[in-house]
C-alpha cells in the first residue's frame, strides 16, 4: 500500500498476489490432509502462470507505452507495481517450495510414495532407467541448438525444458568449443516414471510403496547419448510464460474464426514475460535471460520440481488414502428426487410447481444436465437457446465422444432430433478458445445455429431458454446461473443456479437472446438486468437507495459475495454509503481494491475472503430495502470488465422460501472463523481464528450439512399457483 494517506484504493495486481498468498497459506496449514495441502501448493503455481501471462504482461506493456511517472489509482507507477509484485511472488514461491521440500515430499515418503533423485538410484534402478531411456525416451527427444547468429528456437509457454551447456571432448583446434542446447520435454511422455521395487522403504506396515523418478532428471543423467563427441558441463530445467493478453480484431465479422486462430498463434509466439528455472548453470540462465529479454525481476529460481501440478493426478490414484481428505459427498437435490420411483418425473413438472434453486457442488449438477437431455428427447420441446462460455470436456476429435461435455452433446442431439437449437458460443473465453472453436464447429455440423458472441463484448452470461408445447400454448423454461455449463468444474466450483418458468423472467430471457443473436437494441426488461447497458446503473441505484435510507435514520444494510471488487464507481458509492451509516459486509474471494475500516471513509465496511475446499464462485447481492430484503444472483463481479465490457445478467430470487434460504447462505459466510481472512485498513489480510470460548464455524462444512439435511426430505414442495403469482409480483 502507498504511503500517501489520500489513496483510497489498493493495487489490483498486488491484491491478486495477496489472494494467491492466501491460497499458499492453506497449503501451509498442517491441519489439512497431506494431499489437500499439496493441491493448494500446486494451485499457487498454476495461478501464477496465468497471472504473469495476463496481468504482468499488461503492466509491462503499460510500462513500455507510457511515461514511467504515470500513476495508477493505487498511487503506484507500473514500474513500482512490477517491482512490488516480483518481491511478493519471490517470497511466496520460496515458502511454497520450502514446504514441498521439507514437509510434503518427506511426508509422502513416510506414507509410501518416494521421489528418488539420481544420487539415490540403486544399481538395479540405474540399469532399468538406462534401458527405459534408450527404448522409451531417447527416440522422441528433439535437441534444439542455440546459435548467436540465428533466431531463438520456438519454446512453448508453460512447458518444461532441459537446457544443456556442452563442451567438445576433443576439439580439432585445441580450443574449447561449447554448445548450448534446449531439449523440450515431449508431452507424450509421462513426467513421473515408476521405478522397480528393488529397495526397502521404511513405511508404516500395510501401506503400499511406490518409487518415482522425474523424466527431466533421467534426461539429464543420460543426456550424453544425445550429444556424441561432447560432454555435459552444466544443465538446468526451465519454463517460460508468454504474453497471453491478446485481443481479437472485433471488426473481422466475416472471418472471425480465422481472426481467433491468429490470436492463438500470436499467443504461442508472443513476448516472454517470466522464466522459472532450477539451479545448476548461471551461464545458461544468463544466456536464456538475454535471449528472452528478461530482467532480474522476471527470473524465478526454484529448489524443487517445476509445475508441481503434474504430480496431482498420480497422487490421487496412488492409493494413499490415509493422506487424502475424504471426498465430500455431493447430494441430490430433493426438488428433483425420484422419490424412490423407478423413473424420475420430467424436470418440467417440477419447475412448473415453482422456482428451484441448486447450490453446487453441495448439490449435484445432474438436474442441469437433465434439463438439456430431456429437452433434446422431449417431443413437445420445439426450441432450445443457450449461451456457452466454458463448457469443459475434451477438444472434440473425430469419432470420439466419451469426454464430451454432456450439455454440448445434448444440444447436438437436440438438433439432430429436429429441434430449433441456438447456441451463443463465446470464442473469446481466455485459454478455452481452441476448445470452444471445436465445439462450435461440431455443433454447426449437427444443425445447431451457432452465434459467435458480440463485437467488442464477451458474452459471460449463463442462461438457457427451453420452449415447450403445452395445452395449445408455448411454455418457456429458463435456467440462470452464476457459473458455467461445465460438468467438471461443477464438482468443485461453488455456484448457485435457478430454474424458473415465470413468464416475466422468460420474456426477458427471450429479449436477451434476440439481442445476442439478432444484434437488436437493448429493450426494457421486467426482471433481468444486463451489462453493459444497465447493470452498473442498477447496482449504483441499489447502493444509493440504502444510503438514502441511512441518511433518514432507517436501518440500512448491504451484503455481497463476489470473486473480485475493483470498479472505482462502485467502490466510491460504497464509501459514500458507509459514510451515510450503511452497514456493509463484503465477501470477496480474490481481488479487492477497496480499503475497509478507514475512519471517515469506510469504517462501516467489512471485507472477508474464504479460501477452502471448494472454489468460491457464486455472486450474491443483498440489499435490505427497509426490511424487505432484495436478493440477487449474477454472473458478474464488481469489476469494470464485467460491468462495461461483457454481457452479464443479474437475476432476482423472487420465491419467498428460496429468498430466505439464500439470505441464510449469504449470512453464514460472515460467521466463518476457520477459513476466512479479514482485510484491514492497512491493506493486509489476517486469518481469522475462533475467539476464546467461540465455537469454530466453517461455512463450507455448514453448506455441506445443509445439503445433507435437505436430501433427507426428498420430493418437491408443491405450491399453489395463485401463491406463486403473488410472490412473483413482489
Question: What are the key terms here?
Answer:
alpha/beta, 19 helices, globular, 730 residues, ten-stranded mixed β-sheet, eight-stranded mixed β-sheet
Describe the structure in your own words.
Helix 1 packs antiparallel against helix 2 and helix 11 (406-416) packs parallel to helix 12. This protein is 36% helix and 20% strand. The longest helix is centred in the N-terminal third of the chain and has 33 residues, at 78-110. It is of the alpha/beta class and 730 residues long.
Q: In a nutshell, what does this entry contain?
A:
The protein has 19 helices and 27 strands.
Average pLDDT works out at: 87
Shape: globular
pLDDT < 50 runs, ≥5 residues: 248-257, 715-730
Tally of helical runs: 19
Strand count: 27
Helix content: 25-40%
Major beta sheet summary = 10 strands, mixed
Looking at how many chains there are and whether they match, the oligomeric state comes to single chain
- Proportion in β-strands: 15-25%
Q: What structural category characterises the helix and strand content?
A: alpha/beta
Q: Whole-number radius of gyration?
A: 28 Å
Termini separation: 44 Å
